[in-house]
Amino acid sequence: MSGARMLRSADELVSAGLVAEDQRDALSAVGARYAIGITPAMQALIDPADPADPIALQFVPDPRELDTTPEEQDDPIGDLAHSPVEGIVHRYPDRVLLKVVHVCPVYCRFCFRREMVGPEGLGTLAGTPLEKAMNYISDHPEIWEVILTGGDPLVLSPRRLAAIMEKLAAIGHVKIVRLHSRVPVVDPGHIDPALIAALKASGKTIYLAIHANHQREFTPQAEQAIADLADAGIVLVSQTVLLRGINNDAETLAALMRRFVELRIKPYYLHHPDLAPGTAHFRLSLAEGRDVVEALRRRVSGLCVPTYVLDIPGGFGKVQASAGPIRDLGEGNYEIRDRNNVVHAYPPAPPPER
Question: FRET pair for 15, CA 20 to 30 Å: which of 21, 90, 104, 272?
Answer without folding.
Answer: 104
